[in-house]
Amino acid sequence: MTSITTFRFPSNQRRHYERLRRFPDRLIVLGDAVSSVNPIYGQGMTVCAIEALELERCLRAHALTRAAHKFRAAVGRIVELPWMLVTCEDFRYPQTKGSRPPGVDFINWYTRKVHELTATDAGALLTLLGVMQMERHPMSLYRPGIALKVLAAAVRGFLARRKASSAPQSLSHDTESSS
Ligand SMILES: Cc1cc2nc3c(=O)[nH]c(=O)nc-3n(C[C@H](O)[C@H](O)[C@H](O)COP(=O)(O)OP(=O)(O)OC[C@H]3O[C@@H](n4cnc5c(N)ncnc54)[C@H](O)[C@@H]3O)c2cc1C
Fold first, then answer.
1. What is the b/e burial string over 120-134, where b = at least 16 CB atoms within 10 angstroms of the residue's CB?
2. Element (H or E) spanning 35, and its range?
3. Whether the CB of 8 sits within 6 Å of ligand 1
4. How far is the CA of 32 from the centre of ligand 1 (A)?
């Protein structure tokens, strides 16, 4: 056993090699060299594995130069979703810097509501775990079975807050005697 060591992960990092107009033929870039994300979400190796499968598919389907070109484009698409997921989550923290993905506030509000729902709803929990482990598409969190429950909980919460704020305030009983 070694002694305990700590690590710092200063930032998510993504390189858009797929956008370059000039790129060396047959050079393959994958894994963290393309996209390296906050390890607390545990998606880096899954993304690498998906990319490795895609590389195999490209090599089987095309000659080397074309396979490398096709693969570079495919990697750009593969990392898009996990990149959006982790950067949205990171933007919950005010210290996070960078360009905010569109709709990030709504996505984070909705995801928090799904998390709350998972305390009592096994179906929502399994769907959320599937999304976190990249077995299910994030849009499965927005299917009616979950979205309607999230909406109902949000309406209940809103009504409860409104009722609480319109309830009469308790009177303070000052017992100052006047002479
Ligand atoms: C603390 C931590 C926890 C993580 N937990 C999870 C998790 O739970 N689940 C998950 O899916 N992902 C997790 N990840 C992410 C995952 O480890 C990475 O996404 C994955 O290892 C990337 O694989 P890679 O092959 O691209 O890079 P790496 O695994 O970093 O491999 C790169 C290799 O290249 C070598 N190398 C570098 N420079 C040179 C050089 N000049 N010459 C020769 N060799 C070189 C390095 O020594 C290294 O062995 C975690 C990451 C960290 C930092």
1. ebeebeebbeebeeb
2. strand 35-36
3. no
4. 7
User: For the segment 18-53, what is each residue's pLDDT rounded down to a tens digit?
Assistant: 999 999 999 999 999 999 998 888 889 999 999 999
Q: What does the pLDDT look like over 96-109, one tens digit per residue?
A: 888 888 899 999 99
User: Is residue 154, in this structure, part of any structural domain at all?
Assistant: yes
For the whole model, what pTM was predicted? Answer: 0.83
In this structure, the residue with its CA closest to atom 21 of ligand 1 is 45
Residue 178, domain member (yes or no): no
Residue 175 in any domain: the answer is no
User: φ, ψ for residue 136 (rounded to 5)?
Assistant: -125, 150
In-domain check, residue 78: yes
Q: CB of 87 closer than 6 A to ligand 1?
A: no
Q: Is the CB of 7 within 6 Å of ligand 1? A: yes
Q: Give me the number of domains the chain comprises.
A: 2
